[in-house]
């Protein structure tokens, strides 16, 4: 019995010597790398070119404030970005998981990719935008919008890290919270606008290490017409179902159709259920029901004379072994487009 109790005593936790301090407990959050807010802020700068390289922001929040005549480039993904009281600045913001909020800014030129975009108390801005939701302006005037077009090798991965789809871009669907009768507070930039003229690549040796292109045909985000006036009364809907090369196939189809002289109006990436397919694809829905469980679909709207016929021919040539939905004729194309995008807007809370 004595042996039994001796083992029991030896297994008990020994008390520290009297007067000795216990070491502090270690928690998981104590072992995280400390974040210095100054590393995620540009403040009070004038006539400078500054930025952050890929991997240097890594999903943190960022603040830009009180800058004048600066060129600012954030070549990374972030959580949210607020831009306050900036004047005459060029600003590029890589993918932002949450919101981008401009307040009290003047004469700024910006390229932005984000989930939510808002402008308040701003004047005279040109914004090249990719926004997953409806952009909002408030108490602002002379705000002009164009479609985001930019490339560098890390950008596609940053979109994924930020949870953004390159195909969900509502850049031209602006909501003005404070409209003024007989005045227009916002407009769309001309179709032939060259983004390089507004937001040139950086000139510092550090930031030039990022291999940038502003050519439309290299843009990670497809360049769309948005709500500009269509060039033809004929449009065509193409829906690509999830597979190993869906994104690559969508981009290849866009390249082919634009090369033929057609216009890409809008794009969307969204998940569909069986009842959604019945409503959108109607009598052709049974062809696609088994494909819906594989992942989201990508929809593309093209516009131009003879677009339905030429699009059908291109799809047959490129996607011989890939299942796609293509409008069957000019008469049903409008129904297809309205049906799909009405569904998609409801799905995305638009």
From TrEMBL:
Quick one: where's the N-myristoyl glycine lipidation? 2
The answer to keyword Glycosyltransferase applying to this record is: no
Query: What topology in the membrane does the UniProt record assign?
Result: Lipid-anchor
Record-linked Pfam families: TBCC (PF07986)
Q: Which organism is it from?
A: Pipistrellus kuhlii
Region entry Disordered, spans: 1-31
**A GO MF label:** GTP binding
According to its UniProt entry, the protein's GO biological process terms are: post-Golgi vesicle-mediated transport
Q: Where in the cell is it found?
A: Cell membrane
Q: What is this protein called?
A: Protein XRP2
């Amino acid at each position: 019995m004595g042996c039994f109790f001796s083992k029991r005593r030896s297994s008990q936790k020994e008390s520290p010597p009297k007067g000795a301090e216990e070491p502090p407990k270690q928690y998981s959050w104590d072992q995280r790398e400390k974040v210095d807010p100054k590393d995620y802020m540009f403040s009070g700068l004038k006539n400078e070119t500054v930025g952050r390289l890929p991997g240097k922001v890594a999903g943190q929040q960022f603040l830009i404030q009180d800058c004048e005549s600066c060129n600012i480039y954030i070549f990374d993904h972030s959580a949210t970005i607020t831009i306050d009281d900036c004047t005459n600045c060029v600003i590029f913001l890589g993918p932002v998981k949450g919101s981008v909020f401009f307040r009290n800014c003047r004469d700024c030129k910006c390229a932005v990719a984000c989930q939510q975009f808002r402008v308040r108390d701003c004047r005279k801005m040109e914004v090249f935008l990719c926004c997953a939701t409806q952009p909002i302006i408030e108490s602002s005037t002379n705000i002009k919008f164009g479609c985001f077009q930019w490339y560098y090798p890390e950008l596609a991965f940053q979109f994924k890290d930020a949870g953004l789809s390159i195909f969900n871009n509502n850049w031209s669907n602006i909501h003005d919270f404070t409209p003024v009768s007989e005045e227009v507070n916002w407009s769309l930039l001309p179709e032939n606008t060259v983004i390089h003229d507004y937001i040139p690549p950086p000139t510092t040796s550090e930031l030039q290490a990022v291999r940038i292109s502003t050519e439309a045909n290299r843009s990670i985000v497809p360049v769309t017409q948005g709500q500009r006036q269509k060039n033809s009364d004929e449009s065509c809907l193409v829906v690509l179902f999830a597979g190993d090369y869906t994104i690559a196939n969508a981009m290849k189809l866009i390249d082919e159709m634009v090369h033929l002289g057609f216009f890409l109006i809008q794009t969307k990436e969204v998940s569909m259920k069986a009842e959604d397919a019945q409503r959108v694809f109607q009598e052709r829905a049974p062809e696609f029901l088994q494909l819906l469980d594989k992942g989201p679909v990508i929809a593309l709207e093209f516009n131009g004379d003879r677009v339905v016929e030429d699009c059908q021919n291109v799809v047959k040539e490129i996607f011989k072994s890939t299942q796609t939905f293509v409008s069957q004729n000019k008469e049903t194309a409008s129904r297809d487009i309205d049906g799909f995008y009405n569904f998609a807007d409801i799905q995305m809370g638009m």
